[in-house]
Amino acid sequence: MSIISYENLKKIMFKFEPETAHKIAGFGLKAIGSCPPLFNYMVKENFVDKEILRQKIFGEVFYNPIGLAAGFDKDADFIKAMPPLGFGFTEVGTVTPRPQPGNPKPRLFRLIEDESIQNAMGFNNKGSYYMIQNLKKNRFFRFPVGINIGKNKTTSEREAIEDYEKLFKAFKDYGTYIVINISSPNTPGLRDLQNEAFIKEVFRVGKSITTKPILLKIAPDMEAKDAVDICKVAVDAKADGIIATNTTIDYSLTPKAKDFGGISGELLKEKSFKLFDAIASELFGETVLISVGGISDANEAYRRIKAGASLVQIYTALIYKGPSLVGEINRELIKLIRKDGYSSIYEVIGANRDS
Description:
Blueprint: H1 6-13, H2 18-34, H3 36-46, E1 55-57, E2 60-62, E3 66-68, E4 89-95, E5 108-111, E6 116-119, H4 127-137, E7 145-149, H5 160-171, E8 177-181, H6 196-209, E9 214-218, H7 224-236, E10 241-244, E11 262-265, H8 269-283, E12 288-292, H9 298-307, E13 311-314, H10 316-321, H11 325-339, H12 345-348
Parallel strand pairs: 3-4, 3-13, 4-7, 7-8, 8-9, 9-10, 10-12, 12-13
Antiparallel strand pairs: 1-2, 5-6, 6-11
Helix pairs in contact: 2-3, 5-6, 6-7, 7-8, 9-11
């Protein structure tokens, strides 16, 4: 039994500015990863290891389908804390070739009544060299890790391909998969790279450098047809998967929104699902699909999986619901799978798609 409930802890954490709270949480995660008794206790409490949830994807075993989305562990500092939180995989980054401080503060805001977050962080990270040192430390820690890569803010659109080339070279031997991030709203001009010519070129470059699976992460703010077309271009260019979606700049979702940055959490849920569903209607069975955006419970995770997602990711829900959330989702997923008469998650993936 917890000494302090997460609801009480959250009241304390929410008294701090969001970035300060994030740093405090980071210290806690490092402590979990470096303290074997605490690590083992939390794994026992939160990590669900059942055959019914296991999948082999990209040549690696994913013990459950719930991952941490990119943006929380920007520098790969917390990989060892992921199994204690119950995650089946994690995605680190977004990492850029050179370190950068990100956008001016304040740049992270809680939308508490909406259980959402608005961020304008701007790829703040310590750069590719720092992340590689962390990945080297975790080289023998068998856990699926995606690496989310993006261009530096000061790199022009014309030179953007050079940043991605540097990152492919830097990470060609690390992680389970690499994600091309051209969908964050917080780096000027980045979303303009969501075009056919750039996508073809970035996958051509990536595939010439690494044998690691390469995925594309897209924004939720395109028209469904445009998103599907872009994803088809990526798959034709040998993309190994699609991640949908990043944060939204649809500020009409709440009157409390700032007029900058991207919104994640409950406000994004339906917008993200609709776009994912449109993509899955065209590409399910052709590539690995990962759904992210507003997922906060097992029912929503199950809906995404039945729509065609092999994996799902969460981030904002963890802030609002706490460290036991992932274990709760996985245990409930098992119940939902069995209730529907399935014996494995493989049978559930895409069950709602037309045969």
